[in-house]
Amino acid sequence: MRSVAGQVFLLQSVIMVLFAAAAGGALVVQARESSTQEARQLSKGVAQSFARAPGTLDAMKSGDPTELLQPRAEDTRKNSGVDYVVTFDPQGFRWTHPDPKLIGKHIYAVREGGAADRPFTKTFEGSLGLAVDTTVPVYDTNGITIVGFVSVGVTVASVDDVVMDQLPQLLGFAGGALAVAAGGTALVSWRLRRQTRGLDPSEMTRMYEHHDAVLHAVREGVLIIGSDGRLLLANDEARRLLDLPADAEERRVTDLGLEAGTAELLGSGRPVTDVVHLAGDRLLAVNVRPVDPDDRPAGSVATLRDTTELRALAGRAEVARERLGLLYEAGVRIGTTLDVVRTAQELAEVAVPRFADTATVDLLDPILRGAVAAGPGPEMRRVAVHGVDGARSLYPVGELIRFVPSSPAAVGAERGRGVLDVDLTASGGWMSAQDPHRARRVLDLGFHSLITVPLQARGVVLGMASFWRSDGAPFGREDLAFAEELAARAAVAIDNARRFTREHTLAESLQRSLLPGSLPDHSAVEVAHRYLPALEGVGGDWFDVIPLPGARVALVVGDVVGHGLHAAATMGRLRTAVHNFSALDLPPDELLGHLDELVARIDSDENEERDSESVAGATCLYAIYDPASGKCCLSRSGHPEPALVHPDGTVEFVRVPGSPPLGLGGAEPFETAEVTLPEGSRLVFYTDGLVEDRERGIDAGLEALRHALAGAGRTPEETCRDVLDALLPARSSDDIALLVARTRLLDRSRVAEWEVPGDPAAVAGIRAEVTGRLVAWGLEELAFTTELIVSELVTNAIRYGIEPIRLRVLRDGDSLICEVADGSSTSPHLRRAAITDEGGRGLFLVARFARRWGTRYLARGKVIWTEQSTRSPAVEPEEVSAEDLLDQWEDAAW
């Protein structure tokens, strides 16, 4: 019992004994009260029930109430558990009683303790112990006269019996509680001895003294504060850090003269971790923890650390971390596009506001064009300004600045290193020399520090970047090193953009030179076109309108897969080849066949000579339109089908048989489609860049094109504008070529046709009819030469050709066209005739008097055609010398 645990166990034992005694007494009182109450309720209930039971009143009024009531009274007593049921008359003589000997005896003191005219209950001590009796009057039918009384009694059971039944449970509970208390005490005693390692009080005292010495020797302040905000303990380090007075203990923390924030934090007791507070000239990291883990008001412990020097080091480390993060961000944000100006703007946006308040970028003019500057010159063009409102006072974007030799830009460009001006107000002489008025405005707006760094990549100075500060501390040497690193990274991105600009400019110039500068006016069609190169670089899209003999016109559009110089050069080769093949007046399917062979041969030759890009993937759509008949013949190789807008505004896509792209070496021949176009129809040729991109499939693009083309009454120029407004993507990844041709038909009055019989004698009549038609057209001056041409061509067709033979004369603008068709597939060509030859000079005369002539082949037969100008005077035969007539060419077989 000397130990704390033993004393606690003794106290618990006494408490449990007292608790058991109190519980037993309470149980006795509760049992007595409960039994008495239950007896009263039972007695009253049985008495009232018996008095009001049917037959009770009649039995009492009968001649022998005992005979009728005694059996019923005994049955009620036995069934209800009461001790007796007694009935008696108003004079007090019993009618019933459990003991028959007492029947007829008089009852004394019936009304003692209650009125006779209403029920009453009384408790009394009888021979059987405590009992409860209830007497209920029975009234006659008039409710006034009392006929008799019913008295029911119940004996209250002995309270000692009830208590004795529950006393074992009470004692068992008390014993169990004592056993648990003893076990808990033993466990606590064992844990205390284990935690104190079996130390006795003297040893515990020595340990406390040791801990007290350590507490005052540590280099961290420790404060113990009570729940009322009073300082209970402060070690030596805490007194030094907070400069506490000698009598600080037992005083409130708020009365120690500390900073208001520090005193409030220490006195609040709320848990905090490493909250920095200023105490004099020191920065203290404060930690507060409550003493009681259940958050009851039991005080708190605060620890203090001097972080003044650590804070300075952490500040420098934080600045270095932010600078590294800014360099990483610069690597991500600068150079997102291959545009020189946009890259310069990204440099200025990255630097502001995390490094400077305003940033400007100036570049040499040749850099903007993609060229390489001969050296750092004094003139640069401002391409980016980003920063505070005062940035408007600097040179604006687009202005050409000539820097004075003493300016930081000129000095930095000459030395190839950054220049730091810590205080512009002290070193602003160069600003006055550069622009005095602007210098005053810059200083008035608060700009006080400047770093100017050359943008230098691969040993070439591209321009200068300037960083200005109007707020905060001026720039330092560390800032200069960072600015040089930032500018070096940006310079590489700007140089990459410059190189791309140079290549893009060269490729675009090459492509523009290879594309038609303007399309020729033609009586067959009215055309409009658009060409838009991709943002990533020029590609191989192209288009052309080629006049053909017989007032016909060829419409062509193509696409070479890829971008850059190779795609542009390949496009030029294909366009030239198409022109050459068109000069042979080949049908569309034959022309694409020759073009396919050419592309395959070029691929083979280039792959053998050098490992270069191939042309495979080129597509082409070629169409020939004849305004005399309104027929259009089309063929395509891997190209999208053209759209046809009818005069009423409806749109359809012309079904042209598809073939693989050019150069893939397909064995199948190209196929053609022929459609008849009403006058005023619009043929729309385009490349896939118009209807397909990364965000839109070709089906959706074609449907959008259909909606954009729908509608009547628009010119080709208006059609091009509406189509591009509806379909042009915000950022095109492929070239777009668009060609719109509105068809025309030749006036039938300007076309004359004759069927020529196979008799040479019919030639004279044909000549006369042709002359008459020329007179009607007002072309009498061409009659002689035309008669000569017609006579020669028709005669040769009759002599060497195969029927049927047809002659057609057309007037198309300033041209007069003669065409002779026959069923033979042989073609004439010029040859030199000998002096002794009697013939063979007719074809030479045709070539001499016509502006041009040629042959084109039909599905069956051929057409020999000539074209004369109606503007220039005709060449008369007399102008030809005899020597020329004798020493010329002979005709070949037809």
Give the total of domains. 5
Question: What's the alpha carbon Rg, rounded to whole Å?
Answer: 61 Å
The largest pleated sheet is described as:
6 strands, antiparallel
Report the uncertain regions.
874-878, 885-894
From the spread of the alpha carbons, the general shape counts as elongated
Average pLDDT = 80
Q: Give me the CATH architecture of the largest domain, please.
A: 4-Layer Sandwich
- Indicate the CATH class of the largest domain: Alpha Beta
CATH homology-level superfamily of the largest domain: PPM-type phosphatase domain
Helix content: 25-40%
Would you report the number of β strands? Answer: 32
Euclidean distance between termini CA atoms: 145 Å
Question: DSSP helix count?
Answer: 22
- CATH topology annotation of the largest domain: Phosphatase 2c, domain 1
The strands making up the biggest β-sheet line up spatially as 12-11-10-15-14-13
Proportion in β-strands: 15-25%
GO molecular function, one term: ATP binding
Domain PPM-type phosphatase: 522-743
Protein name: Serine phosphatase RsbU (Regulator of sigma subunit)/PAS domain-containing protein/anti-sigma regulatory factor (Ser/Thr protein kinase)
Keywords: ATP-binding, Cell membrane, Hydrolase, Kinase, Membrane, Nucleotide-binding, Phosphoprotein, Transferase, Transmembrane, Transmembrane helix, Two-component regulatory system
